[in-house]
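Weekly structure sync, notes
Attendees: PL (lead), two postdocs, one rotation student
Agenda item 3: pending single-chain targets
PL asked that the sequence for the first pending target be pasted directly into the notes so everyone works from the same version. It is reproduced below exactly as submitted, 133 residues in total.
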Amino acid sequence: MIFVNLPVTDIEAAKAFYAGLGFEQNMQFSDENTASFEIAENITAMVLTRERFASFLPAGATTGDPAQTVSVMNALSAESRQECDDLLAKAIEHGGSKYNESQDHGFMYGTAFADPSGNVWEAVWMDPSAIAG
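Predicted structure, written out during the meeting:
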């Protein structure tokens, strides 16, 4: 399993954003400072207030601001080009923003968006025949 832990500025905006993308919130692992969203069977995004996120860091470490400095770009596999575009549209509709221009390489296509706190996500489709080699 993969758990992606993301610091967010506004937990309520983050909850609305990730629910708006169609990800199911797991209430067992959510509270006023944390929200758990199942992205896929073995992938969970944990959005945490900046204060809660910092509580997992060693003494002296600081939480970066994803709106100012990108440290990671999380990429999600899409079933089609249209699914990439649809995810981008949902992101914008639910408080996110377009992060970069769409990339079209013929056999591979992707979009990029940021959540309301600046955490970057990509949706990527690759032609199955290109994967097979």
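Discussion points:
- The chain has four helices and eight strands.
- Residues 11 and 49 are 6 Å apart (CA to CA).
Action: rotation student to compare against the earlier draft before next sync.
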